[in-house]
Amino acid sequence: MPGQNLRTRKMQRTREDVARTAARLFLAHGYERTTVDQIADAAEVSQRTVFRYFPAKEDLALAPLAASGDALVRALRSRPEEESPMSAMRAAFGKVLSTLQEGGASGVDAPLLRLIDRTPSLSAELLRRAAGLETRLAEVIAEREGIHTGSDVRPQLMVAVFAAAGSVAMRDWCGKESTTLSHIGTLLESALDHMGPGLFGDWRSGSDGHTVTSRLNGDG
Hints:
With 220 residues, the chain is mainly alpha-helical.
């Protein structure tokens, strides 16, 4: 119904306004020193409205990354079936990173990423939430390959390896004080290139995947 669509758009605009206001205050004053009351006042909404869209304060800072995680899952699901799992993951991440670099996903930029990296409570919460994203990505990989995560460890292992490489790339990027998001992709590709072919090859035709799975499952 037209009325419902208008209400939905209004709610989305309010949510985005609150998130942008929070990010601006976090960057100006620091995450710990910024209160929800200050965010509500600056966004010209009630504290109740803030909590309606963001149940916890950390949600205000991490919401843009949560949206990027959702985009990564969608991008991975849309990759061609003939791509190997790791090739699909790399391409999906590259697509999301390109969108961020072009400003197509609001809220994620170099200052925000550094704020999260330098705020222990936020980086710890991001790490906790990353486990859920890894599970979702592993399920997409398993579905693509026609296998089950309960009996084949490769999807979880591959996603964990990718996440570990991403963590290394992010720390390196933060240390270099780069302001270019695409540089994260370059560092990630470099980290992944240092890893062996057991996870990165074609699981359906090569023997490497079978050997890795057999060893991990204790079959020899």
